[in-house]
Amino acid sequence: MAADPAVPTPAAPDVAASDPAPFYAIGAGVLLILVGLAGYLLSEKASPVTALIPAIPGLILIVCGLIARTGLRALKIAMHVAALIGLLGLLAGAGALIARWNGEFGLAQTVQAAMAAICGVFLVLCVKSFRDARKRREAGAI
User: Fold this and answer.
1) Could you tell me which of 35, 61, 67, 82 has the fewest CB atoms within 10 Å of its CB?
2) 137 vs 17, 24, 27, 69, CA distance in Å?
3) 98 lies in a domain?
4) Residue 105 covered by a domain
5) 3-class secondary structure per residue, the chain
6) Cα-based distances in Å from 138 to 36, 65, 106, 135
7) Distance (Å, rounded) from C-alpha 71 to C-alpha 114?
8) 15: in domain
9) What is the pLDDT along the chain (142 residues), one digit of tens a residue?
10) Sign of the torsion angle spanned by Cα atoms 35, 98, 60, 29
11) Is 33 within a domain?
12) What does residue 109 show for φ and ψ, rounded to 5 degrees?
């Protein structure tokens, strides 16, 4: 039996619009930019390049999150790039914290720890989102 043209057929769900992962990327990016700005503004010996290091991956995460909102293919690619940036941010923040540990926990160590923590939480959320997407795909929802 043919579909009645007068009855609208339900549209396929827009997975890119409903997936929370781009919002995780944008949120983590904003937090990283705020950490970088705080590190710069609170430091007496502020070097813009050094203090704003967390803002660089933050900006990339925001761009990835915005790109991911444009469609399913962009969602997959942009969020995998964002997860890579999250991993690199986690390794860079934790690595710098460990390498420069001098027994004190000052502003520089706080900024490095915050960058590692934000990127680590973001990475965990990305992995969860990827697993959820795979479950939806296997269930035939995508």
Assistant:
1) 67
2) 16, 21, 26, 18
3) yes
4) yes
5) CCCCCCCCCCCCCCHHHHCCHHHHHHHHHHHHHHHHHHHHHHCCCCCHHHHCCCHHHHHHHHHHHHHHCCCHHHHHHHHHHHHHHHHHHHHHHHHHHHHCCCCCCCHHHHHHHHHHHHHHHHHHHHHHHHHHHHHHHHCCCC
6) 40, 24, 48, 5
7) 31
8) no
9) 555 556 555 444 555 567 899 999 999 999 999 999 998 888 887 677 777 889 999 999 999 999 999 988 889 999 999 999 999 999 999 998 888 777 888 888 889 999 999 999 999 999 999 998 888 888 875 5
10) negative
11) yes
12) -65, -35
Token pair for 126: 């990305």
| CATH for 129 | 1.20.1270
Amino acid, res. 74: A
CA distance 79 to 69: 10
